[in-house]
Design brief:
two-stranded antiparallel sheet, disordered N terminus
Length: 382
């Protein structure tokens, strides 16, 4: 082999080393009826808004409130872009968020992730614990620093045990742990714990036996009207808690419960089928941020995940005898919701608004839905 050939091989090798092959983490997002560049620009504007709102110490908050919850949700939105704690456009932002959550004062000896000395967190710390645990669990597999990985593992193991200890004897969760709330529970606090535990399990963290099963039973018991368990599958919606079983059910909580069913791997569950039918009765769900639906951001954060899991052929697996016009599909949902989100995005700063919690919350929720097709996180893969 000539010296010129050898030099040529070396040059090619060096070029390949310096120019990494595009990663599967940067999968293209498309939507029928929308220009792809327009769609990508919308997402980039939203992500840029979140980055500008991150505090110097690494956390996010909603008008000074709920820092643990907001940091978990915003961190997830950046991870869904394809960045990791090691590489990518938002790696530094992600690492700062992780460092903030792992700092003394936010990872308690009890296993709780959060700071009960902050007034607005003290009365609903389980929200933050759930979303922060989910975020850190998604980080765990990408952390290649031995000491930090060990620290993350310790935090997640204790956080999982704390979630089990915080559960009520009915399997649900309240705004604070069962012992601090007199055993109070309700649906919206139960859902983040289920997803957090699924993320932990995906990461290889041991999750307490029966935690997810008991939580899913709680959501079953919270579904109205009660179901005989046999015969025709009729719509059922998840109510606020067990004292509200006479109510028709909440679209927001039902979407969240349905998402938990998928997260728990219950793809042929009767409850999930009832929840799907209930949600199909809510015409506003086919809209995004422009038309107010009631808890829009929260509802679409979970409903979008559910429809993504169904894809374009999943619905008929639940209901084999369905008619074509009855199907709930990801493509149809995107076609309406994504265009609506484009129209409702703030053209100046890239945010979405509407919820009392504020634009950081809205923007993190909608970015999560918009980036589902990237499928970069095991938690959000079909």
């Amino acid at each position: 082999m000539s010296m010129r050939t050898i030099l040529g091989i070396v040059v090619v090798a060096v070029v390949l080393m310096l120019c990494p092959v595009p990663s599967a983490r940067s999968a293209e997002i498309t939507c029928e009826g929308m220009d792809t560049k327009e769609l990508h620009d919308m997402i980039e504007r939203g992500l840029a808004y979140l980055v500008r709102q991150q505090r110097p110490d690494g956390h996010w908050d909603a008008q000074g409130m709920y820092p643990t919850t907001m940091t978990g949700l915003c961190g997830m939105a950046l991870l869904m872009e394809g960045s990791t704690i090691r590489e990518g456009k938002y790696a530094d932002n992600i690492r700062k968020a992780v460092d903030w959550l792992l700092a003394p004062g936010r990872t308690q000896s009890s296993g709780l992730i959060g700071n009960t000395k902050i007034p607005n967190e003290a009365v609903q710390y389980l929200y933050g614990h759930g979303y922060a645990t989910m975020f850190l669990a998604c980080i765990y597999g990408e952390e290649d620093d031995g000491d930090r990985r060990k620290r993350l593992e310790e935090v997640l193991v204790k956080a999982s045990k704390y979630s089990r200890d915080a559960q009520t004897n009915r399997g649900g969760y309240g705004y604070v742990s069962a012992k601090d709330s007199g055993n109070f529970d309700e649906g919206s606090c139960t859902v983040p714990q289920v997803q957090a535990m699924r993320a932990c399990r995906n990461a290889g963290i041991v999750v307490p036996v029966d935690l997810i099963k008991d939580a899913m039973k709680y959501l079953h018991d919270s579904t109205s009207p009660p179901d005989s368990g046999a015969g025709e599958i009729k719509p059922g919606g998840v109510v606020y808690n067990l004292t509200h079983l006479g109510d028709p059910g909440s679209p927001a909580l039902t979407a969240a419960a349905m998402c938990c069913g998928f997260s728990a791997g219950q793809y042929d569950n009767r409850d999930v089928k009832r929840w799907i039918k209930f949600l199909q009765q809510q015409p506003g769900l086919m809209k995004g941020g422009a038309g107010r639906f009631g808890h829009d951001e929260y509802t679409h954060y979970y409903f979008g995940q559910c429809v993504y899991f169904l894809g374009d052929d999943g619905y008929e697996k639940f209901f084999p005898d369905c008619k074509e016009n009855e199907k709930l599909t990801w493509s149809a949902y995107k076609k309406v919701a994504f265009k609506d989100l484009l129209n409702s995005q703030n053209k100046v700063d890239g945010s979405w608004s509407g919820a009392k919690v504020g634009p950081i919350f809205c923007t993190a929720c909608y970015l999560s839905v918009l980036q589902m097709d990237k499928a970069v996180l095991p938690l959000y893969q079909r």
